[in-house]
Design goal:
The structure holds 2 protein chains of 2 kinds. By secondary structure, chain A is mainly α. Chain A is built from 14 helices and 2 strands, in the order H-H-H-H-E-E-H-H-H-H-H-H-H-H-H-H. Chain A folds into 2 domains: 42 residues; 260 residues, MetI-like fold (Orthogonal Bundle). Chain A starts with 12 loop residues before the first helix and ends with a helix. The N terminus of chain A is likely disordered. Chain B has one domain: Orthogonal Bundle (MetI-like fold), CATH 1.10.3720.10. Chain B is built from 10 helices and no strands. In chain B, helix 7 runs antiparallel to helix 8 and helix 9 runs antiparallel to helix 10. Classes of the chains: A mainly alpha, B mainly alpha.
């Protein structure tokens, strides 16, 4: 290899050209360029996705403006499009899902991280993480044929216990906001468990020992010391689960009832943003109808970006604090 | 009074700790229940005909989903062609070349893309391919699944490349290898198994995706030759058959569900067993 003096003068053009060529020969420039192109295309694809959603929903955005989000008439025949029933259905079914999945998930995470022997914990965590790999359409299948009949059988009990609340009024046909929420709960619980468990495991051992040494019971140690320490990460896992449940399509479509009405009762059928896109997109004729559905897609996109972003911030801040 | 207080604390301790155990049992039990139920119901009507025949017209019993199985395989092949090169090379860039800022931007974008609901990816592929072409196609469905693979392919490739010890890299470079040569001959081979398993897990994940296919590859009751026609796919068939009002269609939906879940879980279990011996698990 020719020995070039590595001095300040080495920055002169001929050296630069030579060094570029040398890099080219060894493939460094090619590898750098090629992998950079791939990385750039990931960013371009994401930007283009947002742009396409925005561009293709221009008709309804201009016609209805912000009112699109706050009106509740969805009548494709009359050309009236209001997204409120779908936003309502999405939010309520996710809220039901969270109210079931948070206690269940955090409880299981505590058990797996604090109580279970390592072997047992590993096996159970493995099983629960497999649950996250089950395709959504299979949850829908089980939802239709098992969950809905089970809920119908359980209806008198639910009515007996909670019938005084406005949430549990009116006739119950099985497919409902409640069924959608329960299916979602089962689908998001593995996320809450696996992330919360990891976060709880990062809480330093001396925190527990200190509490135990002061005479706290095992539960008091966990609930008053360990969980508050892991609070941020657990909240993050909840946000991640929420983002997933907002965008979840197939399982919800199959059990939520697909009725664009706003009903206070969880027993009533509802409709979610993702479900209406799934059901109506291929039949959407004309110009306005597809544009309305794509605008719903844009709303969903915006919602999940915001919630995912918050989740990442929370999870990453605890994870890095824990490892520091 | 004091002893009462302490008894109460002990009772709360036992009750709450048992409750956390119950939570775990419910979560893990759900999976066991899903598996056994699908197995029992799926195997019952799973036969040779299901795997080799086309769907029959409504009202006629028998028939199968051979076209959907082949359709899914073709969609996954396309998804790999689209998703793996971009994902893997993007991962190489993230692990080997990116500076602090580019690394942050890239990680942020992959997280963002990964969080986009699958139905929205479907809309994207629709406006990108179906709309200009004026027809549904295997190609459009494959691209939709491919886009879904990209963010996880980037992150898992990068994670496994980073897990390769620096000393290996330095050793290669000390012997005079260029950065690229070190990558190609030392680093990537060392990370190969992890990267391949990551890709398998990624494939298993998109294999079950239904929403992005609904208005890209659509559906088809017949064979779909080539790449330019609508095609049936297993997850879409499960959806269509499950919401239809015919009993024998429900039976077929169970069988299809069983086949799909068996494939997805088999890949997941093998991949996780391999990874657990090797350290980092990519999410």
């Amino acid at each position: 290899m020719p020995a070039f003096p590595r001095t300040a003068t080495s920055a002169r053009p001929s050296w630069r050209a030579w060094s570029f060529l040398q890099g080219f020969q060894s493939g460094d420039e090619v590898a750098h360029g090629l992998s950079f192109a791939a990385a750039a295309s990931v960013i371009l694809i994401t930007a283009f996705l947002a742009l396409e959603l925005y561009r293709n929903s221009v008709l309804t955005r201009e016609k209805f403006g912000w009112a699109f989000l706050f009106t509740k008439v969805w009548d494709p025949v009359a050309g009236q499009f209001g997204a409120l029933p779908f936003i309502y259905g999405t939010v309520v079914s996710s809220a039901v899902a969270l109210s079931i999945a948070i206690p269940l998930g955090v409880g299981a995470a505590i058990f797996l991280a604090e109580l279970a022997p390592a072997r047992l914990s590993a096996v159970l965590t493995f099983l629960i993480e497999l649950l996250a790999a089950v395709p959504s359409v299979i949850f829908g299948l089980l939802g239709i044929f098992i969950l809905v009949p089970v809920l119908r059988a359980a209806e008198p009990i639910l009515r007996g216990v909670l019938g005084w609340a406005p949430l549990f009024q009116g006739p119950f046909y099985g497919v409902s906001l409640l069924s959608g929420g329960v299916v979602l709960a089962i689908m998001i619980v593995p996320f809450i468990i696996s992330i919360s468990r990891e976060v709880i495991l990062t809480v330093p051992g001396d925190q527990r020992e200190a509490a135990l040494a002061l005479g706290a019971t095992r539960w008091e140690t966990t609930w008053k010391v360990v969980v508050p320490n892991a609070r941020k990460g657990i909240t993050g896992s909840v946000f991640l689960a929420l983002a997933r449940s907002l965008g979840e399509t197939m399982a919800v479509t199959m059990v939520i009832g697909n009725d664009p009405k706003i009903n206070a009762s969880l027993f009533a059928p509802g409709y979610s943003i993702a479900a209406v896109i799934a059901n109506e997109f291929t039949e959407a004729t004309g110009d306005l109808y597809p544009s309305a559905l794509i605008e719903l897609g844009l709303v969903l996109f915006g919602l999940t970006i915001i919630i995912n972003g918050m989740a990442r911030l929370l999870v990453e801040s605890t994870m890095s604090k824990g490892s520091a | 009074m004091k002893s009462f207080h302490n008894t109460r604390r002990k009772v709360v301790n036992v009750v709450m700790l048992s409750l956390t155990g119950v939570c775990t049992l419910i979560a893990a039990g759900t999976l066991v229940f899903i598996l056994s139920y699908l197995f029992i119901h799926g195997v019952r009507s799973l036969n040779w005909e299901f795997l080799t025949k086309l769907p029959t017209p409504v009202g006629e019993t028998g028939g199968g989903m051979a076209n959907a199985i082949i359709g899914s395989a073709k969609l996954l092949f396309l998804a790999m062609v689209v998703g793996i090169p971009i994902g893997f090379l993007g991962g190489v860039y993230l692990a080997e070349f990116a500076g602090t800022t580019t690394s942050f931007v890239l990680r942020y974008t992959t997280d963002l893309l990964n969080g986009v609901p699958s139905i929205v990816i479907g809309i994207f592929a629709y406006t990108l391919i179906v709309l200009p072409q004026h027809h549904f196609s295997t190609f459009a469905g494959g691209v939709a699944l491919g886009i879904m693979m990209i963010p996880i392919a980037v992150r898992s490739s990068a994670e496994f490349l980073r897990a390769v010890p620096g000393s290996l890299r330095e050793g290669a470079m000390a012997l005079g290898a260029s950065k690229t040569k070190a990558l190609l001959t030392v680093v990537i081979p060392a990370a190969k198994n992890g990267i391949m398993t990551g890709i398998l897990l990624n494939l298993a994940r998109v294999a079950g995706e239904t929403a992005p296919l609904l208005f890209t590859s659509f559906s088809n009751r017949y064979w779909s030759p080539g790449w330019d026609q609508p095609t049936a796919a297993l997850p879409v068939m499960i959806f269509t058959y499950a919401v239809a009002p015919y009993d024998d269609w429900h039976q077929q939906a169970w069988s299809a569900g069983f086949v799909l879940l068996a494939l997805v879980l088999a890949v997941n279990i093998t991949a996780r067993l391999i990874l657990s011996k090797r350290g980092p698990v990519a999410h």
